[in-house]
């Protein structure tokens, strides 16, 4: 969805990820059908964007994430992280972001979090880009620690390739 006067951001969505049920491994209350989104500033160049353009990486990330559950035979859901390789490498020149965490969007109304269609319950999550150190924080200390740190630093799901890394100290404070 391109930016508009009443919504000055671009919103990218997967379309079709929810067509197949994910293998949740019997986890109770884990959604079997999800779609993912990324929110980009209205200044993000989307017109005639090709795969070689440096600003194309969010589209590539969403496409890769949409295939991930089928490729791994598992599920993606709230709090999961996916790194861009092992070890994680930046998505593009000009950013050190190299992974994502799947979480509810802070930029859409809560009514948008789920949809029932054709006897399927679909949940919508944001793919929030992370730095390598933030991926490590999630692995070492858990999802709650990382999400708390992101919220404390007012990081939401608006993609900012140069945002501050929440694991780095600034003037002795986190």
From TrEMBL:
Residues 5-164 form the Suppressor of fused-like domain. SUPFAM superfamilies: Suppressor of Fused, N-terminal domain (SSF103359). This is Suppressor of fused-like domain-containing protein.
